[in-house]
Structures are given as structure tokens and as C-alpha cells.
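We include the entry.

. . .
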Amino acid sequence: MNATLRSLLEKMNASIEVDAERVRVRDETTLRLRDINLLAREAVFAASETRAYARWLIWETAQTLGIRPASIHGLYVARGFERVPATFAVPAVNLRALAYDSARAAFSAAIKTRTGALIFELTRNEMVDTGQRPAEYANVVLAAAIKEGFRGPVFLQGDHFQLLAERYKKDTDAELGALRRLIDESLRAGFYNFDLDTSTVVDRTKSTPAEQQRYNCELTALLTDYIRVRQPHNVIVAIGGEIGEGGQRNSDIHELRAYLDGCARMIRHKPGLCKIAVMAGTAPGGAIAPDGTLLVPPVDFALLRQLSDAARTEYGLGGVAQHGASTAPDEMFAEFARNGALEVKLATQLQDLVLDNLPDALRAVMRAWTLESLAAERKPGVSDTVFLHRARRRSIGPFKEQMWSLTEFERGNIRALLERRFTDLFTWLGVADTRGMVDAFVSQPEIHKSPQDFSDHPAPITPEQE
């Protein structure tokens, strides 16, 4: 046995053991009470080799306990073909700060409410700002599930995997290559759900929706085919496209049809998309007044209903995903579910709940760092409050270890606040009691990995014959 692995196991009080390269749980009570906390921290902060073995142990322990990364494709297709009612909106949560404790709170709320339809996601930009790569995020979420005693599929999603327009124009091959590498990294980590966003290349100078959406369709098809030939053989990855263009304008039915028709023609490796992200009045991060007050987003629920109904009834998709909803007032969440939203993205509000409840001293240091380190990016006339609202998430990565090092009492208070919030959100969005529905339509394949898969230089993913 490798010396690094042996050293890790010796710290585990014999709660797990490795036999013939398979992990066996010997004492789940001790594992949950103490040892999984140790493994989670090692999976984030340890030196390279120890980190890889810690992540492998978490992954394999989760597989043994029936906690498995999965694709939500089956549930979304079932909704598209009216095998399940279109009465719920799946919360897709971006855990930017204190990810382990935040995921624990989400799983605890999910167990109490019998919520099965729940996605944990991360965007390309968030990976930089919060210092979390896909393998770290995946294993932190799985460790949290083990800690809370959760069982069942865990949906990990690459959110807003966006083609950066300026980089694409400057060097097409380099930008596409960067996005492909990120997809590979995410697939290897257990992300079996993706929101692809190539809407940045939509050309509004063209005269028809089909012409405007042409490059968006081509690039979505290119990346969808890339995923399909690299996904695990027993997984159908859930893939969504986007016409939302970052909140610049509301989507309309004509561009939705033009985009979905184009994708259907161009995607070679079926199945195609199972959802589509749109804009219907919200904006990522929410809108804020100069005095710091969050503005109520002007959501067009009639438009949301029209787009979602068309996606389902005309194209067999699960429906539409709505970005930028987390700062909406509480009473609005039930309206998303009632008006056909398939998926609702929740990030900023959860981030702020964590950051606003950190100890005063740490919060002050992070605030000062943001104002000083990012001062060059601040536009003239922007108040501290408005600037911090937009920029504070970039302090999360530099102060990640300090947040992880808070006392159990401090982290426990934040978990309690998050758990109450998750419980409310699951209820408002209609996903409470969806566990049976998820079990009926979602496959949970057992997928084993090697420590090499979690190293800094894993073997490349070998595509199937195209």
C-alpha cells in the first residue's frame, strides 16, 4: 500500500479500509462524526499526493454508501414528455463560500424535506474567484453528503460554461481549447450536468432569428458532441444551451425556436439538449440601488411560461432555466415554479448569507482587501456598497482557508441559517417530496476511479469512436 494512503487511513480510526483497491466502510458512525471532516479538509488543503488520495477515498466511500454523482437528464426528459408534472423548479445552487458547511446545510434540509431534485453547480468564473476547481468542489459536496447521512444521486453541474466572446474573436482555437479542457476536467470530477453558454456570439446585426442564432447553434452542437463522446459509457450527461446573453435583454419565442431548431439539426450525437437557459427579467447578481438596496427584478412571468411551455411541448425539453434569481424577494420563488421554470439558479443570496455572518474581524479584513486589491477596477462614482456587492465574491478564494478555520460554533451558526434558507427555498420551489420522482427517473451508476484520476496530471479522457 502506498505510504501516503497508509498515513491517511491511520488517521481515520479504522472507520474505512482499503481492500484490493476498493474502499469499505467499517464504522459509519465514526466516519460521520469525525473522520469525514478530516478527509474533506485534506481534499482541499493538503499537499498534492495526500490531496489526491483524500479525494479518492471520499469518492470511493461515497460510491460504497450509495452517494453517487449522476445526471438529471432522465428527470428532465420525463418532464418534457409529461411523465412528471411541470410544477417544480429545481434549485441549482452555487456554493461559493464555506462550500463544505453550505453543502452540509443543503443536504440536511434535503433529508428533512425529502428533496431529491437539487443541483450543486459552479461557473467558470467562480472557479477562479472562489479558488475551487471541479475535483475539489465535487469531493467537498460528496463529503458533506456522507457527513449528513444522505443517500442517492448527487447532481454536480458545470454552470454557465461560457465562451468568452473577446477571447474567441482574438484566438478561436485557444478559447475553444480552454473550454474543452474545462469540460474534460469537470467530467473527470463527476460533473454529469452542463449548462453551455455560447450565446455570447449571437449576432444581432443579422435580420432573422435563425441568422442571429446560427453561431450559437453551431458552437452548442460542437460542444455537445464533444461531451457525448467523452461521457462515461453508462451516463447520459444532462446538457443545456442558452439564449440569455448575460441578462442584456429578455429572450423571446422566435429566438428560442430558431436556436432549438438549429441545435436539433446540428447536434450529431444524440440525445441533444434537455433544457435551455433564458432571460425573463432577472440579471446575474441582481440589481442594486446606489444606497445598497436590492431592486425587485421585473420578471415577466407570462414570457417565462410561454418559453417553458414551448420548450416542453414543441421540443420535448424539461423546460427553461432562469439565471439571476437568488436576489428575488421570497414571494417570487413560488411564482417561478408556478410559471414553468424548470431550474432556478441561486448563488448571490447564499454567498451573502455566509459572508454577512462571518466574525466581524474576518469580515472587516475581507472587505478591506476587496476595496484595496480591486480598486483599479472600480468605476468613478460607484459607492462602496455597490462595488462590494459586485466584487466581494473575489475575496472568497484568497480567504478560503481562514473561513474553513472558523470554530465549529461559528460555522454551526452559519449552517443553521443556511439550512433554514434551503428548507424555505425547497418548499417555495416545489421540490420537497421529489425524492421518489428522482429515484424513478434517474440512473445512479456505480463508477469507480483510481487515485491517479485525482492527481495533478490525470490521464486524458479517451473519446469513443466518433
About this structure: Residues 3-65 form one domain.
